[in-house]
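Quick one, tokens below. Sequence please?
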């Protein structure tokens, strides 16, 4: 009886410890998400836009009041000194209003540039097995985007625009498929953390299998980036035709492998 009670107590403490660790992890992730949302460039520009808009409204109100004072001075309702002060105030306030309006336009332009930029999804939690592969994927995405931008420029006419567009589409498709695997991995991790200890074995194996698939997908994407870099490096060589042909074959093989990767996130037909 004592052994049974002692075992039950140990199981209870283990369960409580697991629950507390899970709750602490959730709280930490929630705090990180809120900090990331606050520090997001779009959120910062939105706050600056609201502040500048309020300041501009204030200057316009001041200008309206000064204009009323000037009008009353012209009709003789107020002394000349009030009209002179109103004129000076309108000049200074007008300059401030113009500067605020120019600042507001710059913020609008920056918001437009950010709106055109790709939206970053939050990274997995640091304790997640998906964190490091997704970080690698984001770095590779930025690199491929810059490489393709340069390959698509008018100065590099040896690279067909259709080939660049095909590589860009392949990269987008592969990136979406890799992220789908990362989402699956995180969901299985949450199930593993909340499952009873005796039922975690298959979930641990599932996490390992998905991590392997995720790493293979990111490696394939990085191979695509490396091939695009070689094309750019050799695009101004004396005889780029052979180099570009070999690189195109390499890119086609990688693209085919990455398209196969995209099937991970699709249900098998019945």
């Amino acid at each position: 009886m004592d052994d049974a009670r002692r075992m039950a107590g140990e199981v209870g403490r283990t369960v409580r410890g697991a629950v507390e660790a899970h709750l602490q992890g959730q709280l930490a992730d929630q705090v990180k998400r809120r900090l990331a949302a606050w520090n997001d460039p779009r959120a910062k520009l939105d706050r600056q836009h609201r502040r500048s808009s309020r300041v501009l409204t204030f200057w316009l109100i001041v200008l309206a009041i000064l204009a009323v004072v000037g009008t009353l001075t012209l009709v003789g309702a107020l002394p000349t000194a009030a009209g002179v002060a109103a004129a000076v105030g309108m000049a200074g306030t007008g300059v401030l209003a113009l500067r605020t309006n120019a600042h507001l336009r710059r913020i609008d332009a920056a918001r437009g540039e950010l709106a055109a930029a790709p939206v970053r999804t939050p990274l997995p939690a640091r304790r997640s097995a998906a964190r490091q592969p997704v970080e690698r994927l984001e770095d590779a995405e930025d690199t491929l985007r810059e490489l393709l931008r340069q390959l698509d420029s008018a100065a590099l006419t040896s690279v067909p625009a259709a080939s660049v567009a095909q590589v860009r589409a392949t990269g987008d498709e592969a990136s979406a498929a890799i992220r789908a695997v990362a989402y699956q991995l995180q969901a299985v991790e949450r199930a593993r953390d909340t499952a009873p200890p005796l039922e975690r074995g298959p979930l641990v194996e599932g996490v390992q299998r998905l991590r392997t698939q995720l790493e293979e997908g990111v490696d394939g994407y990085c191979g695509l980036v490396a091939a695009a870099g070689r094309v750019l490096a050799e695009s101004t060589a004396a005889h780029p035709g052979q180099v570009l042909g070999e690189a195109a074959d390499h890119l086609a093989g990688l693209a085919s492998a990455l398209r196969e990767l995209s099937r991970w996130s699709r249900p098998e037909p019945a």
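The chain has two domains: 41-116, 131-265. The two ends are 53 Å apart (CA to CA).
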